[in-house]
Amino acid sequence: MVDVWVKAGVSVEPDPWYGMAHFLEHMIFKGSKRVAPGEFDREIENRGGVTNAATSHDYAHFFITTAAQYLPETLPYFADILLHASIEDEEFVREREVVVEEIRSCQDDPDWLGFQALCETIYGESTYGRSILGTEEQVRDRTPNQMRCFHKTYYQPENMTIAIVGGVDRETALSLIGDTFTGFTVRSECPTRTFCPQPVLTEIRRTELRLPRLEQARLMMAWTAFGIDHLNEAVGLDMISVLLGCGRSSRLVRELREEQRLVWDIGSEFSLHRDSSLLTINADLEEQHLETVERKICDRLEQLQTVPISESELNRVKRLLLNDYAFSTETPGQLAGLYGYYSTIATVELSVTYPQHIQKMQASDLQAIAKQYLSPDKYAVTVMKNLGE
Amino acid sequence: MSTQRTILNNGITVITVENPTADIIAGRLFLKAGGRWELREKAGISHLLAAVMTKGTSHLSSVEIAEKIESVGAVLGADASTDYFSVGFKTVTEDFREIFQLVGEITRSPSFPSEEVELEQYLTIQNIRSQQERPFNVAFKQLREAMYAEHPYGTSILGSEETVGKLGRDDLQQYHQTFFRPDNLVISLSGRIKHDEAIAIVTDVFGDWQTPNSPLPELTIPLVTSQPTSNKNPQDSQQAIVMLGYLTPSVRKEKDYTVLKLLNTYLGNGLSSRLFVELREKRGLAYDVSAFYPTRLDTSQFVVYMGTAPENTAIALEGLHQEVKRLGEVLLTPEDLQGAKNKLLGQYALGKQTNSEIAQILGWYETIEVGIDFDTQFQEAIIEVTIEQALETAQQYFRGDPYISLVGPEAFINEQF
């Protein structure tokens, strides 16, 4: 498994270049001077391998999974398309239609629409509020020249982490990388992004979407915290999100779904970002219960700040997250992803300290973290309702 | 890694895989039950059983069960599928015995508390409704109903609002009594545990369970006959979903099954597949364009589909149809055939990495009666497929018209037929 992480996500897109990082991810697969469009995919898959990529705010990453014996044959292709993407005009125009179809399919997905609206509500114009895909109009405004410039600016060695996990020894891996990831293009400098601070919430910020064909209303609430430089707080929030909304014995699931039957489903999630992490609580419910449920969630947050959680609940959360960590390090792909991700947003060492942070956490720590970050009267909320007749 | 298959005195088949790689044990219990065994008027009962099963036993309440699982950070859940019913779990090695005891209790003596049955019924009905929110699901439902008519594969595993609403505690009890018995059970375990130790623990938990004297009920399933139809469902969506389906054989027709799996890989699997290259890469018609041919006990379906701009509906339909027909018209090149084989075998291997995946695939093969050796037999059979066989098999199954399902803005899908 070879996973290449590049600090070339949405967060470095120049102001008006919406959708660039993601569109470029598509164009990487269109090859280089030496590798024809589709050739890379064929070379990997015909040897029984798999390849794919993903783009987010903090990164774009590309991976191949292949039997170790094929690494010397496949790695040169992989390095060449990443380092020397040719981004030809004709291919650019063709692939743009594919990206537009991707955008359209997301617009038929109510949960994608809701999450995007929620991010815009809480992050405003700052990085994490920006759509990864961009809109159809924005994507149609991009040019091959802009993209070549973006590529030459960011696909450079200091922005890259390559994680290799599997049946290959360290020396061989390093020498293969050294031989193939070489001859980076001449640097370019694309316009810089103006720093736009994240809005400070002083109240509840609310947005409402009305969609056709929506069969159940959605309530999505969000709070932000510092980024990776405050890992301990991030771990604490991760634990709180499990405490509230992960598993049948978590507080919100038990109370709102199992006992009071006010929601069809409820869950909480924590996403670690480089600069501003996010805790969300999402519920599917009947429209008439929206207000009640929102109020109850706020009551539970209030309670977190005033009453420390019990020892047994703390242990449940710890065991759950520690096992989850163990379960997510079973395959080479998972490991490479973990190492690459941490290396891209901070340092790779942090990826192995996570369990220690969990173990050290006390009830009083969680109480303090809840107090600092999870205010019941300063948050963003997006509700989705049926458009009606 | 070593694999063993053992049959206990009471008829339970146990598959154990010693895999010392990680400090984890995953397991899956399979019963020959599920959607295929459901009466039409009770559609959804397997799924409802799966939802309620973990919510009460003769000794434990729903809350206590959840506590037991979550306090040790284990994963445990029941699942219903068309061809099997399963109870799966994953734990660190240390907690295996404790969690497996709980699995035993849930499997053998669930109590189906009335209020939990009602809650899950209500949640399932909502789940059925929410399937209508996504155009892909709407298109697939329409295709499935057209292809399978009265056959249980024609209904979602969730059942329908009408049938689920009428189910009750008695139905669940009867279903449980009928299908949950040692001679109908396969237990598949994978992880850091020795065969002997695993067998000892399984015997501890399940050894005293007796098979009833009555035989398992005989199953009568409506035949599926091919009568291709074109179906549309107008929706004001951003994309049109274009889906074509062909009836194709069960896994039991091993030779054709193998060839069609390979054709499916060639046509629709991965970034170098024919559909991806021709319709996405060269023509930019879609983001999502693919094919699937699930492994089924009864007649399966070979489906190709894409999501595209509404104005491209006609081109998409024509393009997909053309590509399937081509399989029966043009011999694959030896390179294409070899490429598809490598791809299929590579992905097959990648799908067997975690302990959960290993336990799933072996237990599943045992349950659908192709046996755990099918794991190697299938891979060997793939290697043997020739280009002539590929052509003949395609001619046999893709000669007739496909079933068609369209979902999208009325103006565009109405033009089609």
Structural key phrases:
heterodimer; A: 389 residues; alpha+beta; Cytochrome Bc1 Complex, Chain A, domain 1; 2 domains; five-stranded mixed β-sheet; four-stranded antiparallel β-sheet; 15 helices; 9 strands; 47% helix; 17% strand; globular; B: 417 residues; six-stranded mixed β-sheet; 16 helices; 11 strands
CATH top level label of the largest domain in chain B: Alpha Beta
Tell me the Rg of chain A in angstroms.
Answer: 22 Å
Biggest interface pair, counts? A-B, 62 and 62 residues
The biggest beta sheet of chain A, please? 5 strands, mixed
Q: Look up the CATH topology of the largest domain in chain A.
A: Cytochrome Bc1 Complex, Chain A, domain 1
Strand order in the largest sheet of chain B: 1-2-6-3-5-4
User: Percent of residues of chain A in beta strands?
Assistant: 15-25%
Tally of DSSP helical segments of chain A: 15
Radius of gyration of chain B: 23 Å
Report the structural category of chain B.
alpha+beta
- Name the CATH superfamily classification of the largest domain in chain A: Metalloenzyme, LuxS/M16 peptidase-like
Ends apart, CA distance between termini of chain B:
55 Å
Backbone shape of chain A: globular
What does this protein structure show overall?
The complex is a heterodimer of chains A (389) and B (417). Chain A is of the alpha+beta class. Chain A folds into 2 domains: 2-180, Metalloenzyme, LuxS/M16 peptidase-like (Cytochrome Bc1 Complex, Chain A, domain 1, 2-Layer Sandwich), CATH 3.30.830.10; 205-386, Metalloenzyme, LuxS/M16 peptidase-like (Cytochrome Bc1 Complex, Chain A, domain 1, 2-Layer Sandwich). Chain A has 15 helices and 9 strands. Chain A has helices spanning 20-28, 39-45, 71-83, 89-107, 110-123, 136-141, 144-154, 170-180, 231-245, 251-259, 290-306, 311-327, 332-345, 350-360, 363-373; strands spanning 2-6, 50-55, 60-65, 160-164, 205-211, 217-226, 263-271, 276-285, 380-386. In chain A, the strands form 2 sheets. Chain A has a 5-stranded mixed sheet with strand order 5-9-6-8-7, sandwiched between helices. A 4-stranded antiparallel sheet of chain A has the order 2-3-1-4, sandwiched between helices. In chain A, a hairpin with a 4-residue loop joins strand 2 (50-55) and strand 3 (60-65). The N and C termini of chain A lie far apart (51 Å). With 417 residues, chain B is an alpha+beta fold. Chain B folds into 2 domains: 2-206, Cytochrome Bc1 Complex, Chain A, domain 1, CATH 3.30.830; 230-413, Cytochrome Bc1 Complex, Chain A, domain 1 (2-Layer Sandwich). Chain B is built from 16 helices and 11 strands. Chain B has helices at residues 45-53, 62-71, 96-108, 114-130, 135-148, 161-166, 169-179, 195-206, 254-268, 274-281, 313-326, 334-350, 355-367, 374-384, 387-398, 410-413; strands spanning 2-7, 13-18, 24-31, 75-80, 85-92, 185-191, 230-234, 240-248, 286-292, 300-308, 403-408. In chain B, the strands form 2 sheets. In chain B, strands 1-2-6-3-5-4 form a 6-stranded mixed sheet, with helices on both faces. In chain B, helix 1 (45-53) packs across helix 7 and helix 3 runs parallel beside helix 8. Chain B is globular and about 60 Å long. The termini of chain B are far apart. Classes of the chains: A alpha+beta (389), B alpha+beta (417). The interface between A and B is large, with 62 and 62 residues.
